[in-house]
Amino acid sequence: MKVVGLWVSALLLMVLPCFGQSDAGQGAPAQSDTAGLMQKIRDLEDRVISLEGQVRQLKTQQVPSAQPSPNPAASEETNAQTAPAASQTQAVPAVTSEPGGQSVTLGGAGGSAAKALNPDISAIGDFIGVAGHNPMQPSPALQMHESELGLQAIIDPYARGDFFLSFGEEGVNLEEGYITFTALPAGIVARVGKMRAAFGKVNTLHNHVLPWVDRPLVTNSLVGGEDGIDDAGVSVQRVFAGPKQIVFEATGQMFRGDSGNAESPVFQSNAKNDVSAVAHLRSYKDLTESTNLDLGLSYARGHNDQGSNFLTQLYGIDATVRWKPLRRAIYHSFIGRSEFIWSQRQQFPAEQRSFGFYTSGDYQLGRRWFVGGRYDRSGRAEFADLKDSGASAVLTYWPSEFSQVRGQYRFTRYAGNIDTNELLLQVMFSLGAHGAHPF
Amino acid sequence: MNRSSRHFSFTVLIVGGMVLGSLAFPTGASAKKLNVVTSTTDMAALTQEVGGDKVSVDSIAKGYQDPHFVEAKPSFLLRLRQADLLVVVGLQLEIGWLPPLITQSGNPRIQVGAGGYLDASQFAEILEIPQGTVTRAEGDVHPLGNPHYWLNPDNGRRIARGIATKLGDLDPGDSAFFQQRLQDFDKRLSEAEQKWDAEMKPYRGRKIVTYHRSFPNFAKHFGLDVIGYVEPRPGIPPTPSHTLETIQLMKRENCKVILVEPYFDLKTPQSIGRETGGQVVVYLPSVGGEKGVDDYFKLFDYDIGLLIKAFGASS
Predict the structure, then answer these.
(1) C-alpha distance from A182 to closest chain B C-alpha (Å)
(2) B117 — contact with chain A (CB < 8 Å)?
(3) How confident is the model at residue A324 (pLDDT cuts 50, 70, 90)?
(4) CB A396 within 8 A of CB A370
(5) Residues of B in contact with A282 (CB under 8 A)
(6) Are residues B41 and B149 in the same domain?
(7) What is the β-pairing status of strands A352-364 and A247-255?
(8) Which range marks the domain in which residue B291 is found?
(9) DSSP state of A332
């Protein structure tokens, strides 16, 4: 960086004499001389701007070089120290992380990687207040529901990494933490780590991008609630071009087999072999410039809390229609979505087959206001005959794109005979550089 | 055991299917033309100027769309997967939508830092680089400087030069062709610039108000004075108190022109216009903002035409 600075000043020094000469030389410089000088100044200006650009590039350089930097301390060490010391360093292979250590360890450049290479850090606060009586699913009057800490960066030229730690009021949970391999052949994108599974739409979404304060009944009853299918495993994804400009996206995932909240897990691994699998096929089409349709099929299977011999299988269909006029994209939009989920759970004494769905619509009234509604209906995974239903109305206000206030009125009828009315109020705020989420 | 092996075969089936699928739909670029995807139409127009018929260029955002808020539609993924080169505006203009598209594209050539990723901001003169501490109390600030830098012909020339060099790197056989096209573009741009400078000369020092801070490079080049903005802070919608301030400012400074980008609501600008007797002008920040404005030259022709008309009417 200093070198570039020197260059800039050197160039400026070169410009000054040019002015001096032209003044001293002739009383009235010819037109062509002036034009030549102007050209020269423009060229110099271009070079300064290009150097400024290089400085900016250096400052914002995000990708660490794939090669380890040569270590100047190493040669000094070998010169100064005697042979036994050298053989000692050879004998102990490569775990030191001190600056000046000879070997390269995971984490790479150590001291030389300055703050410029820190990951993008973000924090999202999610505060919820609830009024109204709900004996079935009681929630506290006021709670700091979740604080999500995101750490995101490009790891090396071949991969990027994302961490999302969610702090509840008690305890921390690794919501997601995975590496995405972006440089695989044949257009394949692979992920390894803990991640939200590609089952339908809502399961993939973090709390702060939901259009509601809560999650739909069907998610809570059949797909593991707020945590959902979120597990350690491997994911492989690829996009295909289909006929009639339809875009297909196929995802296959394999997980350890533990998902859902502790009281009612959707999947539970009782033995090492009890892995779970998720498959998702998405088809997408732009109907017009501002309208598009997104249809998905999902399948998940894993073992449940009854034991290794008891399987739970989930089948899902999701549909999303979006409308956003490009010239007024920041003022008006509509999203309609629905998910239909069938659960087939083996348990004692008889298999339970439950079905649930939600359907919702969200309309953006203006730059800061959104209004929406949702209808819910779902059987319960363990008691298919008990059916809950509900409806919500939602109003959202955005002071800016970094904060949001939301109110939701929620009516729920549990098992066909217990009615509850609740008012939920949510305040969310975002700090730092939270990376964009996939569409 | 039996069950887990069934799981395994299930996974193998999926992965196998994908590999087969990828064989059926080959990805790489088809030998001759370089596939270039750009984030905005301006970068596409400049690439087209220097690339000619040796490139096929596609822009993700439309010219009449707010480039801060573009939906990362899956249909763009296919185009990105085929791309040999991705040209971005940079300076965090596309931070809200482009990164997941790049990651999901599964195209190693265009990943950030790879040979086929080009951040055009490195070539251009960047204005309004914030000094000192940056906070979002100032709205949606761009900590690396104002990303609306392409509306200055000199920057256009510099960006084109950068793109021509990059195209030459990717396709060394046609390097001379790209340099030739660059020289031709440079010549035509210099001629046009003389014309534009002459047209704008009578209006040097004129005061204007813009909706968003997307005009500094144009204003600097043509000697206009941007005295205020309809937005109280970048990305924050107009407030009544700020609108009142803007009206008073325009009256005090005798400013009669309000420039609005095509993707903003006209209600507030029009009410400011009514109060101050100013003209509301929907100018185009990008190529393709209106029918017929389909290259870099026509963009300046169009905007300068609008400005001259507005200045003429207000004096």
Answers:
(1) 5
(2) no
(3) very high
(4) yes
(5) 74
(6) yes
(7) unpaired
(8) 202-314
(9) -
**Hey, what's the torsion of the CAs at A68, A73, A77, A78, to 10 degrees?**
50
Helices (H), A81-224: 83-91, 217-222
Domain count, chain B: 2
Cα–Cα distance, A250 to A262 (Å, whole number): 30
What count of other Cβ atoms lies within 10 Å of the Cβ of residue A74? 14
Residues 19-38 of B with CB under 8 A from A: 19, 21-23, 25, 27
A55 touches B at CB < 8 Å: no
Q: Which two tokens stand for residue A161?
A: 């990494």
C-alpha span between A43 and A14 (Å, rounded)? 12
Mean pLDDT of A94-103: 43
Cβ of B81: how many Cβ atoms within 10 Å?
A: 23
Q: What pTM does this model have? A: 0.81
Same domain, B249 and B176: no
Distance from C-alpha of A381 to C-alpha of B276, rounded to nearest angstrom:
65
CA-based Rg of chain A, rounded to a whole angstrom?
29
Question: Is B97 among the domain residues?
Answer: yes
User: What confidence category does residue A36 fall into, taking pLDDT thresholds of 50, 70 and 90?
Assistant: confident
> d(Cα B148, Cα B276) in Å, to the nearest integer?
27
What is the architecture, at CATH level 2, of domain A123-144+194-432?
Beta Barrel (2.40)
CB of B313 less than 8 A from some CB of A: no
Which amino acid makes up residue A73? A
CB contact under 8 A, A186 and B22: yes
Q: Which contiguous run of DSSP H or E holds residue A297?
A: strand A291-304
What residues of A are in contact with residue B11 (Cβ under 8 Å)?
A: 252, 254, 277
Q: What pLDDT does A170 receive? A: 86
Nearest CA in chain B to A48: B125
